[in-house]
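Batch job 17 of 40 flagged for manual review because the log was empty.
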Amino acid sequence: MAQWTAAQFDPTLNWADIEWIRALWPGRIILKGILDPEDAKIAARMGVSAIVVSNHGGRQLDGAPSAISALPAVADAVGSDIEIMFDSGIRSGQDVLRALALGARSCMIGRAYLYGLGAGGLQGVAKAIEIIRKELDTSMALTGITSVAAAGPQIIAAGSGIEAPRRRS
């Protein structure tokens, strides 16, 4: 498996490849693996529809920053110019709320649904999503907000070590 995975990486991949894909594909492009604010700005200028802030679980570079620590700077860099999705470590509704408060517009829940799938098939996936949704509702109530749109830097605890993004209009 490690050999196959290593063979899938192309070290020559660069921004020109996004232009090539755009020439072939008229649909939306979502670019995953953004951790750097400058990369986010380039993606927005190139017309990418969305970016996914992710370090791919740190599997490729174990010294890469955590996606949650990179999220605020990425969100601050692009504001509402591009949709920001988050994928890394979402295991609960509280994790979803934290990512939304730090600038994400949506979250991916890879492991959570896989655990549900393994435990109970389709019903297990539905249960995992239901649990995360209920935890999100509880977390919102505990922070005094009633909608995900109200999630912002005000709900991040002081001293958390995570700097919330400055909101751009």
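Reviewer: the log was empty due to a logging misconfiguration, but the result itself is present. The chain is about 45% helix and 10% strand. Unflagging and moving on to job 18.
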